[in-house]
Amino acid sequence: MAKNSVLKLMISQRSKLLFFLFLLAGCSGGLSSTVKEVASFDAKYGVNLSDYESGLPYFDTHEREVVLNIEDYPNVIEELRAVGENKDADSADYINFRVSLLEAEQFYKSALRRPFAGFNDVIRCSRKAEINQSVNELFTAINKTEEAITFYQSLGDKAKRIRIDPSWVDFMRASNAELSADGAKTLSIISSYCNSTPSE
Q: Which partner from 48, 106, 120, 146 sits 20 to 30 angstroms from 138, CA to CA?
């Protein structure tokens, strides 16, 4: 009976060890491994981190090899999020960094491409509501880039493993300042002019 008890204890301990190793395998690999995993995602959708190095206006004149429509982004973003499941903290920050950039791209393109009512189009008071929505999307895009910067900087020296020019943060923020000024100017014009002439 004592022999059986010892055997049961050994089996129990072995099971616990295997379970621990299973959990460890799910969380292992680290940042470098996650970056490689995301590289497959990038290749699938034609994403390159250099696209973000000069700020969101890059997308004014550049289209990806794999064209993403506005309605495609939610599913693509969820696919990227799934890569980050059961990862270590650094890998999670990297995934969040990449997700925030994609979300910024999504909102920026939506703001830019709203037909005849984008934040930088000719202002028609009859489209005031749509223009306001466009500006709100622009500001959301800017906020998403700030989220991305926060996740990127949280990696500290490990951010060097990411293939993006470290100066992208400065370029992005300079670009964001210009975009914010454009959005604020549009809202100011609507507020001062369209309230008195709503039908034009």
A: 48
Contact between residue 139 and residue 180 where contact means Cβ atoms under 8 Å apart: yes
Q: Name the residue with tokens 């800017």.
A: 142
Instruction: Give the separation between CA 111 and CA 113, rounded to whole angstroms.
Output: 6
Residue with tokens 């703001």: 111
φ, ψ for residue 111 (rounded to 5)? -65, -40
The amino acid occupying position 29 is G
Domain count, the chain: 1
Distance CA 148, CA 52 (A): 11
In a domain? residue 26? no
Per-residue pLDDT reduced to its tens digit, 5-42 = 544 444 455 544 444 433 444 444 699 999 999 999 99
Question: What is the extent of the structural domain holding 119?
Answer: 31-194
Question: Is the residue at 58 inside a domain?
Answer: yes
Q: Is there a contact between 95 and 148 (Cβ–Cβ < 8 Å)? A: no
Tell me how long the chain is: 200
- 3-state secondary structure (DSSP) of residue 38: helix
Q: Which residue has the tokens 């980050």?
A: 84
Tokens of 64: 């990806």
pLDDT in tens, 139-190: 999 999 999 999 999 999 999 889 899 999 999 999 999 999 999 998 888 8
Q: What's the gap between Cα 14 and its chain centre? A: 42
Report how far residue 64's alpha carbon sits from residue 78's, in angstroms, rounded to the nearest whole number.
19
Model confidence, pTM: 0.81
